[in-house]
Sequence to fold (838 residues):
Amino acid sequence: KQLFQLSVMSNENKVTFGRHLRSDFFLEDKYIPLNHGSFGVYPRSIHKVLREYQDKTEEHPDRWNRIEVNPLLRKNRELIAELINCPDASDVAFVQNASTGVATILRSFPFEKGDKVICFESTYVNVNATLKYLQDIGQVELISLSLKYPLSDGEVLDILRATIQEHNKEGKIRLAVLDAIIAQPGTVFPYEAASRLVQENGILSLIDAAHSIGQIPIDISSFDPDFFVSNLHKWFFIPRGSCILYAPKRNQRYLHPLTINYKYSFEGTEFEQEFWNFGAHDHSPFLCVAADQLFPILFPTLIFNPIEYRKSLGGEEAIRDYIHNLAVEGGNVVAKHLGTQVMENQDKTLIGAMVNVEIPLYPKTLTDAQVSSQFIHKIIYEQNCMVPAFKHNNKWWVRLSAQIYNDLKDFENGAKAIEKVCQELSI
Amino acid sequence: MTKSTSFGRVLRPEFYLEDGYVPLNHGSFGACPQSIYSTYRHYQEESEKHPDRFLKREVFKDLEKNRDSLAALVQCNSQEVAFVVNASYGINSVLRSGFLKPGDKILCFSTAYNAVERTMVFLQDAHQSRLVTVELKYPMLDQEILDLTRQTIERELAKDPDVPIRIAVFDAISSVPAVRFPYEAMIKLVREYNILSLVDGAHAIGQIPLNLKEADPDFFVSNLHKWAFCPRGSAFLYVPERNQGLIHPSVINYAYQGEKTQNVAATFEAEFAWPGTVNFSSFLCINAALDFRKSLGGEEIIQKYCNDLARQGGKLVADSLGTEVLENCDKTLTVAMTNIRLPFENKRNLSEAKIISTIIDKCIYEHNTICSPYKHNDKWFVRLSAQVYNDLNDFEYFAKEIKQILKELDE
Fold:
């Protein structure tokens, strides 16, 4: 069975990445996968790790859950902390997903009546919903900024700066929710500069970096955000749902988890303990980061650890370069085929490993919601492909993701699929 | 299809439990049968073949099928059931939704689960809730508990007539001590005073029969991974339609509409359906778990076996130790968990925490068994769970081992 064979080629070989890597994953044969950004996938070898840890939790539930899992959880957090250049793993907590991480911060932060929060129309839909809820119950006042892409980083920062100047005059802007990479459109946001800008004005920075780990380099120490959340299951080949929440010690007193556990302390001095366990759940995804030493004797050529797997392909930088370049080239291929344009600014800073391409979609009778939904249905069930379609700045776009298992042919095939669906929905 | 099955050690191979391990603490973490795990893994693999097709479309059909079976089992409408990762998440969702105003009182009991108790203290600290705690010292009769509660409510109303007791939080089956609580009568009692009822039924499903339509709680949570053989990370929150507009999940999503909500039921369903990207596979194992339980004889037979074994096993251990089982005169406390007093004198004056951790460590690492030790009402107890894979031999074994452990504790 193909389960344990990795088609890893040596570093010197130029063809390290591409569709031959698809067999490292479970992805269906004929499926054209161009939406890694939504849910991620993990390599087959990690599945064995997942199973092994799930078995352990069933062999002796008390010994595992009370004692043995704890040092492993800690070790996995240490590896992630190292990866994002965070000096103390005690400041890194595991949560199920970025929506949970951001909601945790927003719903436990002790806002005072009248506190203002900066957010964007492009802030992730669940985050905006949480912010709206907080506004509805009188905790915060929202200042929502509109970004109409394409914009340069300078333009984005100017908009932010102008907003701060206008609103900080009367009343307090307490916090700003900043994406590292926006979901829709899938664009890279100047989050480090924005974080510094808001902090200079006495505003806390909450970085929703859901898409970041594995797609762009993260250096926590270099820009010192007030709060930082990133999914591991999106771009880092860890099983769903796994995410990290980082808070420097100075801000931990503001935070308590959405599900309070028996370590709760009002002073917030027990961050690591409070966030250690959110009630019974399957720990095994979180244990996949460090997963190793399980089968070295039986299967010496197998790589179970996403970090090691990614190293075997050339390492983080090589992967990021490949997926970025493919996103750029692939976007161009699709735009050329459709006769449209890629969403990019003059400085070429918007594209990470996701690229947005305008699509020739001119619905006559359908609502926007119907269009989005039917687009998904057709692209999945009729074209055996997947890209999300959305409206931005009065145009319809698709967002395409580039991963190590993609190559340009996928984008060519994707373009044809998109074209067909657009034709069918434009009647 | 039912066939007469032998329960006891002969069923252990259906689970993953280690050879030789004498497992007497099903109540803490549950245990998931191997056949259910193959369903779990099937869905985990499915979701990797085409994540979008699965998570944007297919998963919802399968979730609905499993939810329908669950609703039928607990006798309520499917649309009143929301899946949550565990009971604690459900309880936090309800209590922290925002319908509690500063100064509102919460009625609770001293036997609340530790994380639930801490949640209410958090509400006190962060949201100015006021806690009214009813002290319970077991053994108690159901009526004693109800009377004591009524007295407490009346006293509070007399003291602060303008301050509402908004909600009462109580167990269906408490964890420590592990005793059946008269939750059905309590729902009715607190309702007389216009107090909402949040029932922590974490231990309930699979251990006792449930009829939520009849019991009619305002909110009810239960873990499927405790006594219903589902993988860890699966629970449900029951909210009758009349209360659905009051609450929101801890992880608020795109379906939130606040004041603009037109269809309360549809919004409730959509809000709880997607807590961000999670592994839904555990919820997709409900049908497999219920089928497995049917193959063993069905809910009634399983629950009777566990109940009988808990009583017999508890008595066996108590007799062996020369102590007694924690039970009232009406014998309403014991379901599938039994509480046996320990003849422990604490000669070395160890701390409570040290005693608990030492007993657990020795059980696990030196005696190949497990229990849940605790102090209640100035006495030491162990809680033992009876499951389909247990029999009296397990309790006999435990009785011997715990004697040795207690001896070592005092040396």
In short: The first strand of chain A starts at residue 32 and ends at 33. Chain A touches chain B through 69 residues (CB under 8 Å).
